[in-house]
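Running this now, will post back.
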Amino acid sequence: MSRRNRVDPFGDLHAVPDRGLFTGNRGCLVDDAEQVVRHHRGNLWITCVTEFRGRRFGLARPNRWTPIFFLDDAVALAAGHRPCGECRWPAYRAYRDAIDPALRAGELNRRLQTERLHRGRGLARAGDRKLWTGTDLPDGTVVVTDGPRLILDGQLWAFSFAGWHAPQPAPDGPLRVLTPPTSVAALQGGFEPVVRRARR
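Update: finished.
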């Protein structure tokens, strides 16, 4: 039976059989009976590789961090996570440097924590005045239309736990942006997310 540890672009947890490309951490989510009882604990929300230096972690250890799983970087960023600075050092450095090389991990965590509280509420703005549209948002951004959709190659791709699929042309009008502004800035600055498209 699948555990409720697969993350959707809204950051919610689901029990589905599909495996993602990355694991991650947002604190201990389980109780002493190993049941998921909370959405997160703390502001360290990271995305990790599934194998690193032979380390192994239980999937539901009380009082320890609870592994959760993501389809790809686009889902993880939309959910409010960033690349891990240890097991994904090159990706973390590329993400940070695309925003500001002087930023420390703690400041990134605080920014993302604040932004997670407002994700997808109303029309996200680039700066203070300009509304974001499908033509000026970077690839890797997740927006909400009839559900979460990925902007990639000028198209909107629908989400499934098996991969992004059913592309359609991106509209010219304003879009409801799910990916937090800090991560959108990283994408605009050149961070290249790992993206998984569904197999045909």
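Residues 120-130 have pLDDT under 50 and may be disordered. More later if anyone needs it.
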